[in-house]
Write a structure and sequence with these properties.
- By secondary structure, the protein is α/β, with parallel strands linked by helices.
- It has 12 helices and 13 strands.
- The strands form 3 sheets. A 7-stranded mixed beta sheet has the order 2-8-7-6-5-3-4, sandwiched between helices. A 4-stranded antiparallel beta sheet has the order 9-10-13-12.
- The longest helix is centred in the last third of the chain and has 24 residues.
- The radius of gyration is 21 Å and the shape is globular.
- One of its GO terms (molecular function) is transaminase activity.
Length: 381
Amino acid sequence: MITTAKRLDTVEEYYFSSKLREVRQLQSEGKSIINMGIGSPDLSPSKAVIEAVAAAILDENGHGYQSYQGLPELRKGMADFYQNQFGVELNPNNEILPLMGSKEGIMHISLAFLNEGDHVLIPNPGYPTYTSVTNLVGAVPIYYDLKEANAWEPDFEALEKLDLKKVKIMWLGYPHMPTGARGSLALFEKLVAFAKKHNILLVNDNPYSFVLNDNPMSLLQVEGAKEVALELNSLSKTFNMAGWRVGMVLGNPEIIDAVLKVKSNMDSGMFYGIQKGAVAALNCDKSWFEDQNKIYRRRRELTEKLAEKLGCEVYKEGVGLFVWAKLPEGIESSEKFIDEILYEKHIFITPGTIFGSNGEGYIRFSLCVKEEKVQEAIDRF
């Protein structure tokens, strides 16, 4: 009997991996499931992206191993994007590292900076991967509360009361997933000051800035942020390229170089054609975001109607790819609530509990569902 590594005892299969098997089983039984759980954009990349990839496939030099640091023109495209959208100046030669999706960056950063027993500050609620990766590398997750009463932002008085001596990394993500809280530059300034005071590596996970958000921000806009901070970003949500796996990590050269040491031992470079498509995406003009948001705005309006039909209270201030909603009084379990809807109405909604204990009493709807399907979901009630 070959035994698994002990580290596997610290994690479970990703919620959506197991739950979608359940959904597929219902579909195989002939049930028409409306999936409002997954944040995988159903819209297409721009025509320019598709054309760039098509041309790259015919390039005889495009099928070999690629640079671990990506094409120079891709890094420049990422630098120009940050300059144009956030006013953040980055050196494309040593302050930007393209990733195969920002999710892999969470693992690379953790491997580069965490020793066994180090502590990691993780938002509750927050992206589950922060916890699973922390556990896999043998570090210790320390949760900090985000609550609606505080606009889903950290309580700095509570943070200062924690034992921070062993804390090495603090994860955050604004616009926040799953709630859609926007954050602010004032909040980022406080976080940078906190990280400097306690010698913590601050990492902002920032893939939702351009979805239904009239004020995109970057942590790196804060003066001195590069001294203690990294930012992760992705083309998945912004440019409808989730399956392409294109992301980036940005920060000062010393920190980026440490991440590169890990990454260069994990893969052999991103496919040339995908990189060329990513360059084209990053060159999209303002009309791209406006057109996408017209679609998402109509979907959000309908999804809010669905949530309200369920007796839920929608978090109206939220931005990004999801609608976060509070369950009616008296509902004790968000997981039981969504299961009843899945089996009775054949609609899959995400329970807030998968994002942490502070997600109990909430559910999350994805906007990656066509309007007619959202209307159908409403009609089922």
